[in-house]
């Protein structure tokens, strides 16, 4: 089969790798003019209708992974129009669109988030995510949004992954890691290949999974564990002396937020780290048999890639 992946960051690049390994043909439409191993690459913006239709020719589904800087204002300016353009073209072509999604749109429910929860954002970033999810529900295209918690894994971007910033980058060097909130609280960490596997499965079964035209599903993810648990394992595997993670002082986060939009947004998202944050399994795990990768197995793959 042939698929289109828009964007080739930490999620898009893993999708391409998975699809190629599965024997599929892949077209990548991305803004940068740089190659992606195993895929045919078209350079440009999805707002270019002619280019988007060319990229979409003959594909069975679209994985829309285009993103922008971690800033609610930029998200609202950049993301809705591009999602709408992709959904319009996909609806015309009669193919589904599969999106990676976060827990942000569900706000306080993230303390123990069941599949099927109502949107209830409590931060500017969450408000944008809720807006996008609502637009997908109302659009004529068939869409599946696959929700993940904080991401880690082989293609994770260390600058944006809490697990990598706090643990996977400093700890193998013997350096102490720092984290938001309380790193010992239960907190779901989603392994990126689990997310991409769930997205591919959803694309191939979109008609059954989203018979009404839209569906929000959960990525199979470990429901137990914390950032501190990952720290202990990484310390052991790296042969370095275990050092507990230290929380980033709130005053530092507030001060940094005055000059950095990203830090200001992280401050708004701190509610996810000051109490448990658990992504519960849904139909992909319970009815379709998709499995979550353990910390042990994920770490081995992440370290050797």
What does this entry look like structurally?
With 305 residues, the chain is α/β, with parallel strands linked by helices. It has helices at residues 10-21, 49-56, 72-93, 124-138, 162-168, 192-204, 206-209, 227-238, 250-257, 261-268, 283-286, 295-304, and strands at residues 2-6, 25-30, 40-43, 61-64, 97-101, 143-147, 150-152, 178-179, 189-191, 214-218, 246-247. The strands form 3 sheets. A 7-stranded parallel beta sheet has the order 3-2-1-4-5-6-10, with helices on both faces. Strands 7-9 form a two-stranded parallel sheet. Helix 1 crosses helix 6 (192-204) and helix 9 packs across helix 10. The chain is globular, with a radius of gyration of 19 Å. The model has no long low-confidence stretch (mean pLDDT 94).
């Amino acid at each position: 089969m042939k698929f289109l992946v828009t964007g080739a960051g930490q999620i898009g690049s893993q999708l391409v790798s998975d699809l190629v390994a599965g024997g599929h043909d892949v077209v990548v439409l991305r803004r940068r003019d740089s190659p992606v191993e195993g895929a045919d690459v078209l350079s440009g913006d999805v707002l270019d209708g002619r280019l988007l239709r060319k990229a979409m020719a003959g594909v069975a589904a679209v994985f829309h992974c285009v993103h922008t800087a971690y800033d609610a204002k930029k998200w609202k300016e950049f993301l809705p129009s591009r999602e709408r353009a992709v959904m319009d073209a996909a609806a015309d072509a009669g193919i589904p669109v599969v999106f990676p999604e976060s827990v942000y749109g569900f706000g306080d429910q993230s303390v123990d988030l069941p599949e099927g929860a109502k949107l209830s954002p409590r931060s500017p970033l969450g408000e944008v995510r809720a807006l996008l999810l609502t637009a997908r529900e109302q659009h004529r295209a068939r869409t599946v949004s696959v929700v993940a918690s904080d991401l880690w894994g082989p293609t994770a971007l260390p600058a944006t992954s809490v697990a990598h910033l706090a643990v996977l980058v400093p700890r193998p060097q013997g350096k102490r890691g720092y984290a938001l909130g309380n790193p010992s609280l239960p907190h779901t960490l989603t392994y990126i290949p689990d997310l991409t596997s769930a997205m591919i499965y959803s694309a191939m079964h979109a008609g059954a999974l989203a018979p009404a035209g839209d569906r929000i599903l959960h990525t199979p993810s470990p429901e137990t564990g914390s950032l501190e648990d990952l720290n202990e394992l990484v310390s052991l595997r790296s042969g370095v002396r275990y050092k507990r993670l230290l929380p980033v002082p709130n005053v530092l986060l507030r001060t940094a937020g005055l000059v950095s939009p990203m830090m200001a947004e992280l401050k708004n998202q701190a509610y996810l780290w000051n109490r448990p944050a658990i992504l519960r399994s849904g139909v992909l795990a319970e009815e379709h048999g998709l499995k979550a990768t353990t910390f042990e197995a994920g770490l081995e793959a992440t370290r050797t890639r």
